[in-house]
Specification:
Layout lengths: L5 H22 L4 H19 L1 H8 L5 H15 L3 H15 L2
Amino acid sequence: MVTISDFQKVGIGLVGFGVFFLLFGMLLYFDSVLLAFGNILFLTGLMFITGMQRTASFFFQRHKFRGSFFFLGGVFLVLCRWPIIGMLVESYGFVLLFR
């Protein structure tokens, strides 16, 4: 049986709430506050689940640099209240990261 630490349990909750806020923000015509909150919760939860070092090594690998740049750039655009463009850039970065 796989043991899950308390930090990982918190991370799973944060990722769940992040996905909920992202979907709810898209449902409400790309509400920038909900999308920004969802992005922050999702990335924080990812760091809690995998750890800070593994998350940083995933995003900053040499062959995944372009995908990371677009994904984190999209998060930045959403935080700057450009939700539609930010989500498009973020989605493109997500595809580049996991292809």
